[in-house]
Amino acid sequence: MTTLRRIIRHTMRFPLMSLLSLILAVSCTSLVLVLPSVTMCFIDVIIPQQQHDQILPTALLGILAIAGRQLLFTLRTYCNNMLEMRITHLIRVELYDQLQRLPVKWFDSRSSGEIMTRVADDVPTMDRVVIDGIDQALAALLQFLIVLGYLFYHSWPLALVTLVPLPFIGLLTSWWSRRSESKWKASSEASSALHALLHDNLAGIRQIKAYTMEAEALEQFDEASRKVGEAHRDVMKGQAIVWPSVSLMAESGIILMVAFGAWWTIEGKLTAGVVMSFLVAWGFLFDPISRINALAQTFTRGVVAAKRVFAIIDTPNETHLTEGKRPAEFHGAVRFENVGFSYSSESPAVHDICLRADPGQTIALVGPTGAGKSTILNLLTRFYDPAEGTIWIDDTPITELSKEWLRDHTGFVTQENFLFNSSLRENLRIAKSDASDEEIWQALDAAHASSFVRALPAGLDTIAGERGVRFSGGEKQRLSIARALLKNPPLLLLDEATSALDNQTERLVQQALERLRSERTCFVIAHRLSTVQQADRIYVMKDGRIAEQGTHAELLQQQGIYAHLAEQSLQ
Question: Exposed, middle or buried: residue 215 (CB in 10 Å: 0-12, 13-18, 19+)?
Fold first, then answer.
């Protein structure tokens, strides 16, 4: 009920359209009495009294009433569809906005396919509760009460006989509704797992082909698809038993009604017209019951989907995203004091980290894979907050700063040089939304990327393709560097920024980066030690700790880890 109330509250954000839908539902439903009333009139009045002149007017009146009902139904359907579209759009945008506000750590344990399922599938499914589950259920209840009142008005004993199957139907459908929710939940989760697998396999199709994994991938997909079928089959198995039973009970009511109606007609307690009108009205009385199957499925699936959607909406937002201090100036002094952090409870990623960067200095982080270098940069951008110790930015604890302000003053070139499936101009303007083409070309020139961009037929209007698939690794890296140059931030983070470049291009980009680093604080991660020799200070990391620190020359003299790495890298 809590979930249902939340869905209704979203519907009430469109009060006029919701009210119009309700008025149309009431008007449309009220006209269901036309057919049984006309039938009674023909049998009890026109035929016995041989009123030939009333046949055509009565028939035309009935047809016009039915036509009016269908017209109202058409308007109601259109109104409901418009309402559903608006609610779907509203909730989908709200859900996407919430996804952007969640901490990075939340995404670490969830697949993209699962999240896409909730946005693309669960939102429309939950909204069907409003249109099918609520609107039609209200209309069905109203129709049931109107017809029931009609029956009791003309013969309350026969009306009671007609209602004999209802308690049994109510008990059976109520039991199945409670039992089927867990089954629909299992079916929805199996579908999410299938979508997640499909998303991963399509994203990694080149790896699947390169390692001839087609058979294994097909087997995994076959298994996931089979689980979806099994979960859905559990639902269908129950429905195959429940709903025929409901139909049996409902249709048995016809026999009871006709039998008692015939008996009381023979005894003179009822007219044939009343019995015939009851027979016609029975269809309208039990029509809502015949729709219980579809409505119950829609309602149950919608509530399950709504719970999955609201689970994301109710997840606590990333803290200090917009709240926090916003200093007037960013000088670029950075200090780590005994900082520790762990991605999980198994082992710390970094611990007891102490380092310092004065404004304008370049700090290099080197060491083997998994030593914790990228974690340092993730902490500087507040993708994660330290579990212990303090990070200071210009003598202010980083946890007191607004994340939005901090990231606005930080340029981050990551290991994965991601490009969106939009034009190069739009990809670069992520760094500066109002950048002119001239500024963009200057950044491309500085990153030595302008030559291959100018050679493209569409130039800056070239679509990058999904994840920048139309460009080589080196080209994507230079575009990412150009994006950072365009932002021109006081704090620059370079995570293997030149790893995908050939030696000649690397030297050109290094010149651009040296000019960029000269005016700002810069943290550089590099496996190629040739790129960090000019750093003001080099920190050598191992097993999440700082093992050595100093300048390039000082570290070579120590004959330790750095000297060994230099021997391998610079030989």
Answer: exposed
Which pair of structure tokens corresponds to residue 10?
Answer: 């979203």
Report the distance separating Cα 302 and Cα 128, nearest Å.
6
Of the CA atoms within 13 Å of residue 265, those in its CB half-sphere come to: 14
Is the CATH number of domain 334-569 3.40.50.300? yes
CATH class entry, domain 2-313:
mainly alpha
The one-digit pLDDT tens for each residue of the chain (571 residues) are 677 777 777 777 788 887 887 788 778 777 777 778 888 887 777 777 788 878 888 888 888 888 888 888 888 888 887 887 888 888 888 888 888 888 888 887 777 777 777 787 788 877 777 666 556 777 777 777 888 888 888 888 888 887 787 777 777 776 766 666 677 777 777 877 787 777 777 767 766 776 677 788 888 888 888 888 877 777 777 667 776 777 777 777 777 877 888 888 888 888 888 878 877 777 777 777 666 656 766 777 777 788 888 888 888 877 777 888 899 888 889 999 999 998 876 678 899 999 999 988 889 999 888 888 889 999 998 888 898 999 999 989 999 998 889 888 888 887 777 788 788 898 888 888 888 989 999 888 888 888 888 998 988 998 887 767 788 777 888 888 888 888 888 898 888 766 656 667 667 667 666 766 667 899 988 777 777 888 889 999 988 899 999 988 888 888 888 888 887 765 5
Where in the chain are the domains? 2-313, 334-569
Q: What's the predicted TM-score (pTM) here?
A: 0.68
Q: State the DSSP code for 494.
A: E
> Which residue from 479, 483, 470 is spatially nearest to 449, judged by alpha carbons?
479
CA 329 vs CA 326, 405, 407, 517: distances in Å? 9, 11, 14, 18
> In whole angstroms, what is the distance from residue 522 CA to residue 515 CA?
12
